[in-house]
Amino acid sequence: MKKLFKTVLTVIAITTLIACKNEAKTKNANEETVETSKTELTFSNPDVKNQFRHYIHLKTALVNSDVSEAKSGAKMLMENTDDAQLKNMLSKISDARDIEEQRTIFSSVTEKMTAIVDESIKNGEVYKQFCPMAFNNEGGYWLSTEREIRNPYFGDKMLKCGKVSETIK
């Protein structure tokens, strides 16, 4: 039974890995046009612009597997929000010494920021992206200003694993 379970898990992992690699190779014919004709991103709440900018800073640091830069981005976002729950999560990221711990907490930060962005976006597009392999194949979301996938949960190990699951307008 144990051997069967291991075999099934291996098959699932290989299938998901192949799907991520194939997905990264396929491109929508209109994708280039979308990326080159960007509309300025604006929010009805002016504080959200700074919050989102620092969120992107944090996400980029995780993509680059940079623990200290992730701490910096988390601290900047923490200084620009009054949300106690969000501050608590960001405090944990800034105190973490391990990139995997930061990435795990970032998933909860993304959930909170998605609600904030969705409520306040006035103009432009934010891409909600998803990696099915994050967190032991439970999957994880993040937000991006670009359609191109840059996975914060795996960094350069699987940089392009993921897909755009929603466009927030």
Distance N to C terminus: 48 Å
Mean pLDDT: 84
Low-confidence stretches: 4-19, 21-37
State the total count of DSSP E strands.
5
Strand content: 5-15%
Organism: Nonlabens arenilitoris
Protein name: DUF3347 domain-containing protein
Pfam family, one: DUF3347
Domain DUF3347: 52-119
Protein architecture, described:
- With 169 residues, the protein is an alpha+beta fold.
- It has one domain (46-168).
- 59% of the residues lie in helices and 13% in strands.
- The strands form two sheets. It has a three-stranded antiparallel beta sheet. The protein has a two-stranded antiparallel ribbon with strand order 1-2.
- Helix 3 runs antiparallel to helix 6 (99-120) and helix 5 packs antiparallel against helix 6 (99-120).
- It starts with a helix and ends with a strand.
- InterPro entries: DUF3347.
- This is DUF3347 domain-containing protein.
- It comes from Nonlabens arenilitoris.
Secondary-structure map:
Elements: H1 2-25, H2 31-36, E1 42-43, H3 46-63, H4 67-79, H5 84-95, H6 99-120, E2 121-123, E3 126-131, H7 134-137, E4 140-144, E5 163-168
Antiparallel strand pairs: 1-2, 3-4, 3-5
Helix pairs in contact: 3-4, 3-6, 4-5, 5-6
